[in-house]
Amino acid sequence: MSGPASDVPRWLPAFAAANAVLALTFGTFAAHGIKDPQAREWIMTGVMFQLPHVAAVFGLIAWRNTKFVRSGAWAVAIGSLIFAGNLDALALGAPRWVAAFAPIGGSLMMFGWLWLGLVALAGDKLRGGD
Prior knowledge:
Helix content: over 70%
Strand content: under 5%
Order of helices and strands: HHHH
Number of helices: 4
Largest sheet: none
Radius of gyration: 16 Å
Number of strands: 0
Structural class: mainly alpha
Shape: elongated
């Protein structure tokens, strides 16, 4: 198969899909298997950030499949996984110091969106590359 659709690097959408599966798995687990309200809240907060960012990654690829957009989408995708993963770990009983890594995920998400904003403002000036 050739053409624009086949040119989309497979790792980013595959990563986003795996991220969605994790979010849905933890969200379902929180809704049906977690009795502790704090643990449930941590997981649901992670899911609330993770799932919209997964959808955004697919939208970003459809919007403009360039290395500049993909780099921002990677930051958003990895950031949401780190952020939600830390909250999931806390809910499963990890020590509280694990929470110190959540801001890394949040910062990656923010950086990704700021970068994507700059890419959007630059328009065709950043058209170079695949």
